[in-house]
Amino acid sequence: MRLDTSGRERGHVMDWGHPEEELGVLTELFDVSEEQEWQERALCAQTDPEAFFPEKGGSTREAKRICQGCEVRADCLEYALAHDERFGIWGGLSERERRKLKKRAV
């Protein structure tokens, strides 16, 4: 048996309480609706994804050109920085450029 935070015994099954409350907490933690909104408007969603994930040494020029005209570029970059995206072009920046940006911010 395990004890919960109130000291009551619990089995191996989690006591989630009211589903509505849990859904609210999960929605705050993983705000999928807001995330999907900007991602659906992103220009990269309408183009070949391979341009945004070039092979090592490959050109990032085409992806960055597309990002320049994208209305959600700032949202994309913010997402990449918050989620520590390590591959691909996000918000018009490569992984190396995002690392430099993070270092300057610290």
Automatic annotation (TrEMBL):
Record-annotated 4Fe-4S Wbl-type domain positions: 43-100
GO cellular component: cytoplasm
Protein location: Cytoplasm
PTM info: The Fe-S cluster can be nitrosylated by nitric oxide (NO).
Superkingdom, natural source: Bacteria
Cofactor note: Binds 1 [4Fe-4S] cluster per subunit. Following nitrosylation of the [4Fe-4S] cluster binds 1 [4Fe-8(NO)] cluster per subunit.
Transmembrane parts of this sequence: none
Record InterPro entries: 4FE4S_WBL, Whib
Presence of keyword Protein biosynthesis: no
Cofactor(s) the record lists: [4Fe-4S] cluster
GO biological process, one term: negative regulation of DNA-templated transcription
Annotated residues for binding of [4Fe-4S] cluster: 44, 67, 70, 76
Principal location listed in the UniProt entry: cytoplasm
Keywords annotated in UniProt: 4Fe-4S, Cytoplasm, Disulfide bond, DNA-binding, Iron, Iron-sulfur, Metal-binding, Transcription, Transcription regulation
Role according to the record: Acts as a transcriptional regulator. Probably redox-responsive. The apo- but not holo-form probably binds DNA.
Protein name (Swiss-Prot/TrEMBL): Transcriptional regulator WhiB
Annotated source species: Prauserella shujinwangii
